[in-house]
Amino acid sequence: MLSKYLRETMASRHKKIEQHPLQNELASGSISKERYAKYLQGLLSFHQEFEAALNEHADEAPLKGIIDPDYFMIERLEKDLGELGAAGRPAASGTNGLHHEKVENPLELLGILYVILGSKHGGKYMSKVLADKMGNGYHHYYLDPFDTKLGALWSKFVAEIDALPLSDEERDTVLKGSISAYDAFTQSSDFAMAS
Ligand code: HEM
């Protein structure tokens, strides 16, 4: 099954990013607003590239029938950046030294989406901690976009990707996309810590 393959193949990557200092600051709620905003700005440039490609290829296999409008994150990122007082800054792309290679292969795009949706498990927890620690009870939309719907949405997504009849080669193309997404999260985490 594709989901099991991705989870097992990337378990060491997940462990590593969970231990990243930036992720620790998010999970403990000790992060400054400036650093949190920097992290989200790095991710905004990644999502801008990714979502443009996803829109272009949404009607192609294996994305057709799987992509849901709810999977798009840019508006949530912008809302959170506004709350953090970081709205109106130049888009991170091109100004922050982060380079996200444009991905056009629908299988790779699916692999990226897997990591983005999967990351909401940890994000849901972080969102709660941040709502408490940062005061005002603000709901952190990027980290926890689906709220109580996460479990059902994730199960549905996993069932859909597990039902895809993929060759080993195609499966490894999905994995390639997932790895590039881990790299993007790592880069944005490094970028936010480097100040
Ligand atoms: C402190 C940081 C993090 C914590 C505590 C955390 C925790 C978790 C937890 C509890 C799950 C659910 C496992 C399950 O029920 O099957 C999960 C899944 C997942 N997380 Fe994270 N996470 C963190 C950061 C991240 C980041 C930054 C990414 C993105 C690169 C990520 C990607 C994923 C993915 C893809 C899954 C689903 C598949 C899997 O288990 O590998 N996580 N995470």
Commentary on this structure:
The structure is a single chain. The protein is 64% helix and 0% strand. The protein contains 9 helices and no strands. With 195 residues, the protein is mainly alpha-helical. It has a single domain, classed as Heme Oxygenase, Chain A. The longest helix is centred in the last third of the chain and has 26 residues. It is globular, with a radius of gyration of 16 Å. The termini are far apart. The site of protoporphyrin IX containing FE has 14 residues, from helix 2, helix 3, helix 6, helix 7 and helix 9.
Quick overview:
The protein has 195 residues and is mainly alpha-helical. The protein is 64% helix and 0% strand.
Which keywords apply here?
195 residues; mainly alpha; Heme Oxygenase, Chain A; 9 helices; binds protoporphyrin IX containing FE
Blueprint of the fold:
Blueprint: H1 2-9, H2 11-18, H3 21-28, H4 33-57, H5 74-83, H6 106-118, H7 120-133, H8 150-162, H9 168-193
The protein binds protoporphyrin IX containing FE.
Protoporphyrin IX containing FE (HEM) binds next to helix 2, helix 3, helix 6, helix 7 and helix 9.
